[in-house]
Amino acid sequence: MQEPGKYDLNLLRVFVLVYETRSVTDAAEILAISQPSVSYALSKLRKLFSDPLFHRGPKGLEATPTAIGLYPELSQSLRTIDSAVQGISEFDPATTSHRFRLMMTDLGLMALFPYIVAAILEAAPNVRIDVIPLDISQLHERLRRNEIDAAIGIPALHESDVLGELLMDMPYVGVCAATHPRISNSPSLEEIAAEKHVVVSSALGHEHVVHRLAELGVRDSVTVTLPSFAVVAQTLAVTEHVSVVPKALADIIESHGLVRQFDLPFTLEPGRVTLYTYRRDVASPPVDWLRGVIATSLRQYPYPKYVTEETSSKRAG
Question: Measuring CA to CA, which of 207, 288, 305, 307 is 20 to 30 A from 18?
Answer without folding.
Answer: 288
